[in-house]
Amino acid sequence: MNPISRRAALLAALATLLVAGRPAPAAAAEKLRLLIIDGQNNHNWKAMTPPMVASLEATGRFAVDVATTPDAKAPKDAWESFRPDFSKYDVVLSNYNGQPWPERVQKALEEYVAGGGGLVIVHAANNAFEKWPEWNKMIGLGWRNNKFGDRVTLDDSGKVVRTPAGEGPGAGHGPQHAYKVVVRDKDHPVTKGMPETWMHAQDELYHGQRGPAENMQILATAHSDKAKGGTGANEPMIWVIPYGKGRVFTTLLGHVGGGDAPAIRCVGFQTVVARGAEWAATGKVTIPIPEDFPTADKVSLSGSKK
Ligand code: ZN
Fold first, then answer.
1. How far is the CA of 219 from the centre of ligand 1 (A)?
2. Distance 41 CA to ligand 1 centre (A)
3. What DSSP character marks residue 301?
4. Domain contains 292
5. Distance from Cα 111 to the centre of ligand 1, integer Å
6. 209 to each of 100, 169, 269, how far by Cα in Å?
7. Could you give the number of structural domains in the chain?
8. What does each of the 306 residues of the chain score in pLDDT, given as a tens digit?
9. Per the CB 3.0–4.6 Å rule, which of 168, 186, 281, 299 could disulfide with 163?
10. Residues lying with their CB under 5 A of ligand 1, a single-atom ion
11. How far is the CA of 179 from the centre of ligand 1 (A)?
12. Statement: the pTM of the whole predicted model exceeds 0.85
């Protein structure tokens, strides 16, 4: 655009503004700015980030950027250039499980969330940063051994059961299988309107997660079947925790190894991540539950024939 047409465009925009009496919202400005962090993981993060970006952007609610860390073999000074500017974003999503971030990045994330930023933890992102105390507070429960902290499960009536450090199992999972996710909080914006139980596509079912678990609100659980290598307990799958003025949303769903990745093709997973991210960013949810959301006994995969 040359300077003259730029000025004309500016004047036109100003006229619109004056006529409307308030700034006309530009479509792009309405989108929530979401930053995915990846770059190291014991999972196939390279196969996981692009479909997550696509399904988030398909909601029309997000403009997504990705910040990729140096890899594990990179020289130490490579981390100097890893300085994500969290303040530019409404919500940060971690698809990262690797080396500790530099302390300044850790502090920046703490300040960002404490100041009102949103944080979303997907699957193995909760395996990371065992020695970062504020991170452990934000995630509540992580993939840790049983001495690390409390374990939290729900009994069959939905009552929270805390098992102290040192007792019961630490983190683990049995072989992957499709399983039922049970909504435990029907009034939370993220889970409101979801079927009470819905069939999640083949995935790992994490159990025995450990941590400080302070102010943790459990939105959904899954029964960890002993016959499938589990604990026999209702393990938390989706939860939220306030941190300062910010909101942290965690889902343990979403394993991606090699080959096909039904866990993240699950319409349930995609809906949970999108609604969780919108809630973490704004405290509200406008993204609808799609018509092809899984039912109590039927898995629903995006991109497959109906
Ligand atoms: Zn996994």
1. 20
2. 10
3. B
4. no
5. 29
6. 20, 8, 20
7. 1
8. 444 555 555 555 554 444 444 444 445 558 999 999 999 999 999 999 999 999 999 999 999 999 999 999 999 999 999 999 999 999 999 999 999 999 999 999 999 999 999 999 999 999 999 999 999 999 999 999 999 999 999 999 999 999 999 999 999 999 999 999 999 999 999 999 999 999 999 999 999 999 999 999 999 999 999 999 999 999 999 999 999 999 999 999 999 998 889 999 999 999 999 999 999 999 999 999 999 999 999 999 997 544
9. 168
10. 204, 255
11. 15
12. yes
